Amino acid sequence: MHLVKTILTAGLFLSAAAQAQNVLEFPQPENNPEEFYAVTEIPAGGIIKYETDAKTGFIIADRFQSMPVAYPANYGSLTQSLAGDGDPLDVVFYTRAPMAPGTLIKLRPIGVLKMIDGGGERRQNHRRAGQ
């Protein structure tokens, strides 16, 4: 019974995902902001920096990070969001295992990180993909 329920749940989720042509346009849940959807771009422990193209939703390998630098947590973007720099809002999240790039996940926020660069200005998230 559990297997049937899992398959049905996965099928419904995939059907909803197929309707969203661009993963960044995937609708947020009704109880947002208590929960929200994010698309994984870089898995925890990863050394390849991926970007989600804002126009197409494709995941693009942007560059390899220098060794031994690796991302300590999963990194991605909130769907249907827009930050001050014109890109989707960034999200950092922990899971039991690294998430594959392009995977949608429902998350509960626990805090906000305000990023400031060395000059005191707000850090801009300048992305190469989608520009």
UniProtKB/TrEMBL annotation:
Gene Ontology CC terms, in alphabetical order: cytoplasm
Enzyme Commission designation: 3.6.1.1
GO molecular function, one term: magnesium ion binding
Annotated InterPro entries: Pyrophosphatase, Pyrophosphatase_sf
Metal-binding keyword on record: yes
Cited Pfam families: Pyrophosphatase
Enzyme class, first EC level, given as a word: hydrolase
One GO term of the biological process aspect: phosphate-containing compound metabolic process
Co-factor(s): Mg(2+)
Record key words, sorted: Hydrolase, Magnesium, Metal-binding, Signal
Identification of the protein by name: inorganic diphosphatase
Organism classification: Bacteria, Pseudomonadati, Pseudomonadota, Gammaproteobacteria, Enterobacterales
Protein's gene: ppa_3
